[in-house]
Each structure stands twice: as structure tokens, then as C-alpha cells.
Amino acid sequence: MKASVPDSLWLGIPCFSFLIASICGWFGIMIGVIFGFLSAFASLFLAGYYVLQIRKHWRKDRHIVLYFVLIAISIAGFYTCFGFQKNPFMNTFRARIKHEYSKHIPEIQTWAAATLKTARPENYTIDMPDRPIWMHIQGLPNPRVVLCNDGNSPSFILIAWFNVGTCGFKVGGSTLQIQSEKIADGIYFFGGR
Q1: Residue boundaries of the structural domains of the chain
Q2: What is the pLDDT of residue 5?
Q3: 162-175: string of b/e by CB count within 10 Å (b at 16+)?
Q4: Taking the alpha carbons of 114, 119, 124, 128 in that order, is the dihedral positive or negative?
Q5: How many helices (H) and strands (E) does the chain have?
Q6: Residues of the chain with pLDDT under 50
Q7: Strand (E) positions, 10-148?
């Protein structure tokens, strides 16, 4: 068993990458996306390494069970982080914007009602000077804000980070009903798992 204990220390690499990605997500530092993927692929690499160690020690080491446990942990780590929606950066970033915006629900509803009332019958971007102060979260990139009023579906305002559709909020009148996570009447979060 002593020979395989140092092998278990290699799990610190994906764990450290996961931690860095999560911290970057809270502060909106985009390099965290890379650390999130690094965590997933380091876990997958370690699973392969542990499989090779089992082949190497199959008949010599009676504590081979530890390697099976390490493989299971590595695969679980890969599954936990793999893909953009499961990336630890994105998980923490989503938690931060939901936390910050939940403090301003009445202001969001009032602003959306007033903005939608005077909206042109088309889809267009709302420029920075026309955005309320609560929309800008200290230390995070500014969202893209698009008023969707094409007449084919209920009007709403899209507040999105990164590419439109990655994650953010859809804000409309109190009767707005869409397939996303409801935060409050007329406010929905999208981009979660």
C-alpha cells in the first residue's frame, strides 16, 4: 500500500484546478474556464494512469483495491467537471449572478415593466447609459442586454453574460411564462444544469 499512496496525491492536481476555476467564477475571471476543463481532463488522465498501475501491479500488490478506488474518484471528478454547463467556473459564476440579482428583484420588475412599456416593436440592444446601476456587478464583466419584442412571442429583456444564450436572465411582465428556472414573477434564470 505504501507504493500507491504517492499515486493518490496526484488527485491534488484536478482538485487544485477545480478550486482555482471556482474562485475565478466568483470573480468572473475568464481564465477559470480553462482551469475547469483542465480539472476534468486531469481527472480523466489520472483514471488512465491508475488503470495502467493496476495492470502493472495486478499480481504483485495485494492492495490493488486502492487503485480501483482512485479510478472511481477520477471518473467521478471527470464527470463532475466535464462540459461547459458543468464547468466549476460556470457553476460559481451562475451562483454569483443569481445571488447578486436576487437582492434587486423589485427594481428589476419595475425597470422591466417601464422598459417594455416604451419598447419599439423589434429586437435591439439596450446601451450602457440606458441600463440601471444594479445591473452592473462589481468585479464581473458587463452583461449584454437585448430587448426581445418581435411580436411572435411575449416581450422580454434578455440579460446575458458571455455569448447570448450562455447564462443570464429573461425579464418580462409578471405574466411571462417560459421554460427556465423561475426566480420571481416575470424573472427567469437560464443557463443552469
Answers
A1: 5-93, 103-190
A2: 65
A3: beeebbbbbbbeee
A4: negative
A5: 6, 6
A6: 1-3, 164
A7: 124-125, 144-148
